[in-house]
Specification:
alpha/beta, 11-stranded mixed sheet, Spore Coat Polysaccharide Biosynthesis Protein SpsA, Chain A, RgpF
C-alpha cells in the first residue's frame, strides 16, 4: 500500500480545491493587471505571438560583429556624452587581461574609438543606437543580439554626469564625485582590477561588484517597483520587494550570465519610455534594480568594492588563451528522435518527427511560452551530419562534457539509433553514454501500458542480451567513465524480470569481453514508473541518478492565478518550489546518488489541455539550482562530480538546453558559468 504523507495529502487537497474552483467558476479569468507599458497584457498585445527580443536592424549588416575570436571579458561602454569617452578609455588600460570593447553610441554624432594606447583591447565595435532607455535599452540590444554571450565577465560603464545627484535628499555628493568613485573602485590601477577578477575566479557566488556606497536597498525602490514586478512576471518570478539589493548607477563588474539572461525578458524599444529627462519611474530604472534582483535569483551576491577580496594572480583565469578549469561533469539527456523512421511513418504519418507536435502547441495561459521554437539550429533533421556536429560544438563551447543518449531497444530491435551509431562511426571527440529507455511507446506519449505502439517483451528476447547489443559502444574510448568504469543507466529497472541476475550477467559479459567493470545506475523514478523497489545494494546497482521532475516536488499553482484556458485540465506546477525543495535535498546528498537538474518540464506539445506544466523556469533560477548541485558534489573525487540535466533537446517536453527563440543561449550560459567557476 502506498504510504500517504502529510505533504501528499496537502497536495491532493490543493489540487481538489483548484479543480472544484474551476468547475464552479466555469471560466478562468486572469487576475487583472495594470495595463501599464511593462504589464503582461501590454507586452502580449505588442508581441502578437512573437516573443523574440529586438535590436537595431542595421546591426545585422555590420561586419564587425560578432567577433570571430572573442575574449573572455567584455566591456560595455554606452556613450551619450562624447566628450567623456577619452577619460573612460584611459581607465581601461588597467584591465590585466585581453578585453573586447562594445560601444553603444547614442550621442547623435559619429564616434571614433582610438584604442592604440590600449594593447589589452582585442576587438572593438561601435554600434549606433537611438537615445531611448538611457544606457539600459542599448545594453538590452547587445543581449538580444547575442553579442554578450561569449563573456564570462562584463564591465559595464557609461559616460555619466548625473546632475540630479546634487539635489537628491538621501544621496549626497555631485554627479562628478559619484562618477569618480566608480572609476576608483572598478578600475583605478591594474592591481585593483586583478584583485576583482581574482575574486570572481575563486568565488562562485560572487555576482556583481560596484562602487563603495552604491549598493542600495528597498528604500530606493522609488516609483520602480510596479514595473519591476511586471517584468519579473514574464519570467515567472515573484518579487520580494523588501529584499532589494542592487548596484545603483548602472556601472559594475558582473558575471556574464546576469546580463545574458535578460534575453528571456523579450524586451524591445516599446517597453521603454521616450526620453524626457526622467530620474525615476521608467523601465530603465526598473531594470537597473532588476539587475540586483536577478543576480540574487541566480544564487549570486551583489557587493561593494571594499567587501571583495581576491588573489590577483587568479585574474589570468580570464585571459583569452587560458584553459578554464572544470569543476563539474555536466551530462544532459539526449533525445535521438528528430529524424524520420519507418516506424514513425507508419504510426504517425510519412515524414513525422516531433517537430510536428512542437509547432502545434498552443499557450495554456497568457505569457505561456508555447510553441517553444528553436533558434540557432532551426527545425533540424538529425540525419544531417552538420546538425549533429553543430550540437556537439555548442555543447563543448558551453562546458557540456557529453550526452546521455536515450537508447531504445525492444527485444533485440533498435529504434532511433541512427544518431548514436553515426557518432560511433565518426571521429568526433565527444563523450557519450547510454540510458536504456526501456519504456513502452504509446499514443499518449506517457510510457504506460495503454494504447501501445511497441512494448517491451522480455520473454521473446531476454534482457540479458542487452549488454551484447551495446558492447560496441561501451568499448569506445570516448564512452563516459567514472574511475575507468563505463556508465550505463536503466530507466525502468523494476520492469526487467529478475533484474539483479540480469545486472550480474551484464557485469560478467563486460569482464569477459575485456570492457572491465561497469558502473550500473538507474533513473530515480517512482514505483508507478517501475522505479527501484529495493535498496541499491540488493538490486546489484552501483548507484542512482536523478531524473526530475520524477520524484521531485509537485507544488500546484491555481489555474486562476495564471488565467489558464477553460479547456485546460492538466497540472500547473511551480518550478520555483521544485528548485527550492531540490536545494534542501542537496544538503543531505547520499553517496552513490548522482544528482540531476531540469531546464523545465512542459509537455503541452504532446498533451495540450491535459499537460503537466512547470511555471517559472528561467536561466537565473536554473543557474542557482545547478550551482547548488555543484556545491553538493564538490567534495567528491573529480571523476564522480557527475550532474545530469533534463535535457539537451526534449523539445516536446520543454526540457531544452539548445538555443531557443525566447531564451537564446541563456541556459547554456548558465551551464558554462557554473562548470568553469
Amino acid at each position: 500500500m502506498r504510504r500517504i504523507t502529510r505533504a501528499g495529502f496537502e497536495g491532493r487537497l490543493k489540487r481538489l480545491r483548484i479543480a472544484v474552483g474551476a468547475r464552479i467558476a466555469g471560466t478562468r479569468p486572469r487576475k487583472p493587471d495594470s495595463g501599464a507599458r511593462t504589464s503582461m497584457s501590454s507586452w502580449l498585445r505588442r508581441q502578437r505571438g512573437r516573443r523574440t527580443g529586438a535590436f537595431p536592424n542595421e546591426w545585422r549588416s555590420d561586419e564587425t560583429i560578432p567577433f570571430a575570436s572573442p575574449s573572455r571579458v567584455g566591456v560595455v561602454l554606452h556613450v551619450f556624452y562624447g566628450d567623456l569617452v577619452p577619460e573612460l578609455l584611459r581607465e581601461l588600460v588597467n584591465v590585466p587581461v585581453g578585453i573586447d570593447l562594445l560601444v553603444t553610441n547614442a550621442s547623435g554624432s559619429p564616434l571614433t574609438i582610438d584604442v592604440s594606447a590600449l594593447p589589452n583591447v582585442r576587438n572593438v565595435a561601435v554600434l549606433d543606437v537611438p537615445n531611448r532607455g538611457r544606457d539600459i535599452l542599448p545594453l538590452v540590444y547587445l543581449v538580444n543580439a547575442g553579442l554578450l554571450d561569449p563573456y564570462d565577465l562584463v564591465l559595464k560603464v557609461h559616460t555619466k554626469r548625473s546632475t540630479w545627484r546634487r539635489e537628491h535628499a538621501e544621496l549626497g555628493g555631485t554627479g562628478d564625485t559619484w562618477k569618480e568613485s566608480f572609476y576608483q573602485c572598478l578600475l583605478k590601477d591594474e592591481e585593483n582590477v586583478a584583485e576583482i577578477l581574482g575574486a570572481f575566479a575563486s568565488q562562485r557566488d560572487l555576482g556583481a561588484v560596484t562602487a563603495d556606497g552604491s549598493v542600495l536597498g528597498a528604500q530606493f525602490w522609488g516609483a520602480d517597483e510596479p514595473g519591476a514586478r511586471d517584468l519579473l512576471e514574464r519570467l515567472g518570478i515573484s518579487l520580494e520587494a523588501s529584499a532589494l539589493r542592487f548596484p545603483a548607477g548602472s556601472m559594475y563588474w558582473v558575471r556574464g550570465i546576469v546580463l545574458q539572461g535578460l534575453r528571456s525578458l523579450a524586451l524591445s524599444a516599446e517597453d521603454f519610455e521616450p526620453e524626457a529627462g526622467q530620474v525615476d519611474g521608467t523601465t530603465a530604472h526598473a531594470i537597473e534594480r532588476l539587475i540586483g534582483v536577478l543576480t540574487i535569483e541566480a544564487g549570486l551576491r551583489v557587493e561593494e568594492r571594499h567587501t571583495v577580496r581576491g588573489e590577483a594572480g587568479r585574474a589570468q583565469r580570464y585571459a583569452a588563451d587560458a584553459e578554464p578549469e572544470r569543476c563539474l561533469r555536466v551530462v544532459p539527456f539526449y533525445l535521438p528522435q528528430f529524424h524520420a523512421t519507418d516506424e514513425n511513418d507508419r504510426w504517425w504519418g510519412t515524414g513525422f518527427t516531433e517537430w510536428q507536435n512542437v509547432t502545434a502547441a498552443h499557450p495554456v495561459y497568457p505569457g505561456h511560452e508555447q510553441p517553444l521554437l528553436p533558434a540557432d539550429l532551426g527545425f533540424y533533421d538529425l540525419r544531417l551530419d552538420a546538425v549533429r556536429a553543430a550540437q556537439q560544438s555548442l555543447a563543448t563551447a558551453y562546458g557540456v562534457e557529453g550526452f546521455m543518449y536515450y537508447y531504445y531497444w525492444f527485444a533485440g530491435r533498435r529504434l532511433l539509433s541512427m544518431p548514436i551509431e553515426k557518432l560511433l562511426a565518426s571521429d568526433t571527440p565527444k563523450t557519450f553514454c547510454l540510458m536504456w529507455a526501456n519504456e513502452n511507446w504509446t499514443r499518449r506519449w506517457d510510457g504506460r501500458s495503454s494504447d501501445t505502439l511497441i512494448g517491451q517483451d522480455y520473454d521473446s528476447v531476454p534482457a540479458t542480451q542487452f549488454i551484447d547489443d551495446i558492447l560496441e559502444f561501451i568499448r569506445d574510448e570516448r564512452y563516459l567513465k567514472v574511475a575507468g568504469r563505463p556508465v550505463v543507466s536503466v530507466y525502468r529497472i523494476s520492469q526487467i524480470p529478475d533484474y539483479p541476475a540480469v545486472l550480474e550477467h551484464w557485469r560478467r559479459r563486460a569482464r569477459e569481453e575485456g570492457v572491465g567493470e561497469l558502473l550500473l545506475i538507474n533513473a530515480d523514478v517512482a514505483k508507478e514508473f517501475d522505479g527501484l523497489d529495493r535498496s541499491v545494494a540488493t538490486a546489484g546497482l552501483d548507484g542512482t541518478h536523478g531524473f526530475p521532475p520524477h520524484n521531485a516536488k509537485w507544488d500546484w499553482v491555481d489555474y486562476a492565478d495564471l488565467g489558464a484556458d477553460a479547456e485546460f485540465h492538466g497540472n500547473l506546477l511551480s518550478y520555483d518550489a521544485l528548485v527550492r525543495d531540490a536545494e534542501t535535498r542537496l544538503r543531505t546528498l547520499r553517496p552513490g546518488f548522482f544528482p540531476a537538474v531540469m531546464v523545465n518540464f512542459d509537455n503541452t506539445a504532446r498533451r495540450q489541455w491535459g499537460a503537466d506544466i512547470w511555471h517559472g523556469s528561467n536561466p537565473y533560477t536554473f543557474r542557482r539550482w545547478l550551482a547548488a548541485t555543484a556545491d553538493a558534489v564538490a567534495g567528491r573525487p573529480e571523476a564522480e562530480r557527475l550532474v545530469f540535466v533534463n535535457a539537451w533537446n526534449e523539445w516536446a517536453e520543454g526540457a531544452v538546453l539548445e538555443p531557443t527563440v525566447r531564451h537564446g543561449h541563456g541556459y547554456l550560459c548558465a551551464v558554462r558559468d557554473v562548470v568553469f567557476s
